[in-house]
Write a structure and sequence with these properties.
This protein is an alpha/beta fold and 256 residues long. 28% of the residues lie in helices and 28% in strands.
Length: 256
């Protein structure tokens, strides 16, 4: 039954375009490097298959890689419009990291979700500087929580209402200058000292010339069955892929 639901979701995903002012998807003709692997608990293969099918249905040229060595291929990385990564934990070599960071600094967008981007390489602080945050805990494990849309004008979240997730509620260390689009509030059931704490779950930022989009939602492919979570990811990808083609507004939103 779960496989049937997944394939139905994938079919629907393939036939949904990014919400733009034009009829043509911004993904059409764009070169996207999709890197997946790392810890299997975050379902890198099924989530890749779901989103890669949608990307191709939108006319994107997707280069799939189950190895971080793709980041050292200067020809591929220099032509990349967007890098999507779902690679939880693990380690990355200096050459691999430099290839990724250089591509983004030079204007490639980068997008990802949950631990696949926000808990990838725990020893690499420059990588974390690029992402804009790092996972540190998910109090209570799998819990039900609300996602609150805090920026109702941004194209990524415009028209969406608050919604609930039943998955890991990521507690993150977050760059105070990211543009926050959605947040979540914690109760004290697992850790009394964080009762009422609010943490961002969706944000935008810039690293060098590149657009960075991150969503902490979606522990595995089942979580993408929440329509709002899937829609946010799609819209974030469509925003990030235009990094080399549009002027990016000032995204610094200082908290302090």
């Amino acid at each position: 039954m779960r496989k049937l639901v997944f394939f139905m979701l994938a079919f629907v995903a393939m036939h949904v375009s990014c919400k733009t002012a034009t009829t043509e998807s911004p993904l059409k003709g764009k070169q996207i490097v999709f890197v997946y692997g790392g810890w299997d608990g975050h379902a890198p293969v099924p989530t890749h298959d779901l989103l890669a099918a949608w990307l191709r249905s939108q006319g994107a040229k997707v280069i799939d890689s189950e190895s971080l060595d793709i980041y050292t291929n200067k020809e591929v990385m220099s032509k990349a419009d967007l890098i999507i990564q779902t690679w939880t934990m693990g380690s990355i070599t200096g050459e691999q990291e430099n290839g990724l960071l250089e591509a983004v600094r030079n204007g490639a967008g980068v997008a990802g979700w949950h631990g696949g981007l926000g808990d990838s390489f725990r020893n690499n602080t420059e990588y974390q500087f690029m992402v804009g945050g790092q996972w540190v805990a998910h109090p209570g494990g799998i819990v039900e929580y609300e996602v609150k849309i805090t920026d109702k004008k941004d194209p990524v979240t415009k028209g969406l209402k608050n919604f609930k997730m039943n998955t890991e509620q990521y507690y993150m260390q977050v760059d105070p200058n990211v543009k926050v689009l959605a947040t979540t509030r914690y109760n004290g059931n697992a850790n009394a000292w964080i009762d009422g704490c609010v943490i961002p779950v969706v944000w935008k930022k810039i690293y060098g010339k590149g657009r960075v989009f991150y969503s902490s939602l979606c522990h595995n492919e089942k979580d993408f069955e929440v329509p709002e979570a899937l829609e946010i990811m799609k819209r974030g990808i469509c925003w990030a892929v235009m990094s080399k083609y549009e002027t990016t507004e000032n995204l610094v939103k200082p908290v302090y």
